[in-house]
């Protein structure tokens, strides 16, 4: 089975351009199950995102929230919000990602009155369920937007018309009152989380402790634990191990280096410990992983 992988920079910002400068809109008919390890890993983007679960169940992680999106449900993810999608089985979840400026140019009346209050609010996401009128209306429009991407060429005008209808419903049914203190706290924590992640990315081959990770963001060990747990639901050391394993996994299928060499180069104290952790995380041995990836490529 072909697998997909999301690409991000050192701050976890998604690096792909969604659409282009002339039409900043993109449609992705994604099956989360087909992504590497059945997840679209932690990322964020300045664009707005709507996802609709057409088949299966998607698990969306945002901050301390874990949201199950069953078939027929959807979610709106605000600009700049760190999130991750997972699946336990085949889950077709088409999604749209677009710049707020698609609806109106910055500094225009429409933008300042109807767009800016949303993207500058402290509301990170909104879940839509077909069990209520508001959610049902949004989901119907979202489904229509996805459908015309697949069935109708030259659909830009229809897409924008439907987006305006969808946005109008959001404006009427939600409280987007901005809480600047809340936004400041959220951004401050995310900045420190990203600083510690970057330190791990730069030094994972070296001996790293919780103390050195915390020091990279000028906070206490307990503060580092709290920020990681609320941000991505794991400890700094657990993230370090996962990152080392991810780097090792890549080395397994792009090089012919021995398992022991890869273990040493990615910061593990012994190949035995590396193999135990690799099996625990990937449910197969390093050699089995190398064989599977080689067969997928060939």
Shape estimate: globular
At the fourth CATH level, what is the homologous superfamily of the largest domain? Regulatory protein AraC
Number of strands: 9
Write the CATH fold name of the largest domain. Jelly Rolls
What integer is the average pLDDT? 89
What structural class results from the helix and strand content? alpha+beta
Terminal CA distance reads 12 Å
SS field, number of helical segments? 10
Under CATH at level 1, the class of the largest domain stands as Mainly Beta
Q: Return Rg in Å.
A: 21 Å
Uncertain parts: 180-185
- Strand ordering within the main sheet: 1-8-3-6-9
| CATH architecture assignment name of the largest domain | Sandwich
Largest sheet descriptor? 5 strands, antiparallel
* Tally of domains: 2
Task: Give the ordered list of helices and strands.
Answer: EEEEEEEEHEHHHHHHHHH
